[in-house]
Amino acid sequence: xxxxxxxxxxxxxxxxxxxxxxxxxxxxxxxxxxxxxxxxxxxxxxxxxxxxxxxxxxxxxxxxxxxxxxxxxxxxxxxxxxxxxxxxxxxxxxxxxxxxxxxxxxxxxxxxxxxxxxxxxxxxxxxxxxxxxxxxxxxxxxxxxxxxxxxxxxxxxxxxxxxxxxxxxxxxxxxxxxxxxxxxxxxxxxxxxxxxxxxxxxxxxxxxxxxxxxxxxxxxxxxxxxxxxxxxxxxxxxxxxxxxxxxxxxxxxxxxxxxxxxxxxxxxxxxxxxxxx
Length: 277
Prior knowledge:
This protein is α/β, with parallel strands linked by helices. It is built from 12 helices and 7 strands.
């Protein structure tokens, strides 16, 4: 996701490549980033954040504590910390870093093409200028939506953040079904991809509720009606709902684990003010 943001920023000419500093432990990865984007890549996390206006945290949740130990002593007031770490609450990040100007965000994988959907939350300590910085950075990935309740970022993780997973599974199932019918796999692939893409564009441009769109293509006693009966009999809606709830539950669980790890270090955890909910 960090690389997607680098590509998006440079594609939109929002920043010069020499002003971007990336850190990575592997030298071959640093060389690759420099060759592909012209950015400066370093081995030290502490060096990367020194003097930065915005610090992007794009690591696995289990790596957050280690990275926080590297950068916490170098952070200063006025730097914006922008996190794209799944499940990491602002309370956990604040506790690990000792820094409270934080934006928690959740992009999704289409962000790599500039077609992502990102939901984000800023702590009350962030300034309007920092929020504008976050908004500009996240727009480099596609659409962005600021929310005033951090719980919505966790919920978005289960819907838009994990959403491509659901779509790819449906895509795979439809392709396999088309192959079962007798289509060559490459033909089945194109049929499904173009159908899904066209349907999405149609839904977006029409502005109609999905139920209305579905009714438009469902004739009494027709093929769509037969297909829908089979889908409803198979509890498609319920299974999708259960998948979203499972993803949300895991997101909350990750956040709880990170906050518990923060508490065990003895570092303070910023608790949300009830007035923020």
